[in-house]
Amino acid sequence: MLLAVTKKHFILFITFLSIFTSQAYAANKIEGIRVWPAPESTRVVFDLSAKPEYKYFTLTKPQRLVIDFANSKSSVSLNGLLKDDKRIKVIRTSGTKKDGSTRLVLELAADYQLSLFPLAPAGSYGDRLVLDIYDKDTEATVVKREPVVSQRDIVIAIVAGHGGEDPGSIGARGTYEKRVTLSIAKKLERLINNRAGLKAVMIRTGDYYVNHNRKIELARKNKADLLISIHADAFTSTKPHGASVLVQSTRRANSEFTRWIANRQKESELLGGAGETIKKTTDKNLAFTLADMKKEHTMGSSYTFAEHVIQQLKKVTKMHKSKPEGLSLAVLKSSDIPSVLIETGFISNPQEERNLTTSTHQQKLARAIYTAVDSYFSNNPPDGSLYASTRLHQHKIRRGESLSTIAQRYKVSVTSLKSKNNLKSNVIKVGQILTIPRAE
């Protein structure tokens, strides 16, 4: 009788252990897989019910990435995930020797640079495992700019904030910041490209994520004269409203500056035209002085442009801040490219959320930013640009000068000079101010 009871309890124990073990193995669950193709990379996000335990390895001939998720199960359909991606041929499951684990195999089109890392829960997302697949021969496509009247275009890098699995802020009506910013950015791009002497470079052209360092790299390789990052603000309360313009804080700029100087041999390209001199000189004081001048010029230019933006935005929307605000932001850290971040309004404010989703309001915002660009560079044209060659000059008459000598100096006709200044004759006076028309 005792033996029978023991066997019974033993069988119950084994059954319980089996159930417990099965549940333990399935402690984590793959709840979704999202694929975000971009021009230079593909991001794959595995949504999980708990923090991932994983290992991975690669195989060749054909090229594959194998990911083992420990103590997990998956009910995700793998069909239809890759319709827009060129780097991943297939995502499939495969057998594994470890009970309770899930093995996913990604068959790749070529040999890529791979990066795998977990992300903790944030916002509307739970635990995630992120895979970034980068083209190994990736180089930013440098915009080929055809000369206009033998003068170069001024290049504006436009960053549409967030993208891909990073939606940014989400309004009460379900408006995603990443969609608003891309729509405004595209409208701004069209306005800029329609202006002779300006050229827009879109850092993000679709629904994918670009990390902050890469944004600056792309802007630099396209020889950008200015970087504009477009966002929509949010707060825990629905009351805050209005647009604002942000520039790099002095504290963050000084911190970055210290790092650049310490690594000047490696990072001279971050210091603009003086970069090679800064890199090669053995005089540390000279290197410091040149780099500091460049940093101060960039920060000053950023602030001045930000003031132009505020001047235009307040004509089409309410302002949250009436002056440029300095914050520590990664996308604004470049020492050689004047950079601003524009918060176009509060997506957490019901009225502004509605406005930000309308094409009419988006166009108004884009035109205000474009007008600020045109105004700023009309007053501060880079050397060698079309803007510089057509800028209106003022000239103060000195003793011995005549209309013909002034016209010859600025390569304009006497007739256009007289017309521009409403002169009825060729008589001019010492000290008189003439406006010089654009070169003919």
Which class of secondary structure composition applies to the elements?
A: alpha/beta
Helical residue percent band = 25-40%
What is the number of E strands? 17
- Please describe the biggest sheet, giving its number of strands, its sense, and whether it closes into a barrel: 6 strands, mixed
> If you compute it from the alpha carbons, what radius of gyration comes out, rounded to the nearest whole angstrom?
30 Å
Could you give the order of strands across the largest sheet? 11-10-12-15-13-14
- Poorly predicted runs are 19-25, 139-148, 260-278
Q: Which descriptor suits the 3D outline? A: elongated
Please state roughly what percent of the residues sit in beta strands, choosing from under 5%, 5-15%, 15-25%, 25-35%, 35-45% or over 45%. 15-25%
Distance between the termini: 114 Å
Multimerization status: single chain
**N to C succession of SSEs:** HEEEEEEEEEEHEHEEHHHEEHHHEHHE
The number of helical elements comes to 11
Summarize the structure.
Helices cover 34% and strands 24% of the residues. It has 440 residues and is of the alpha/beta class.
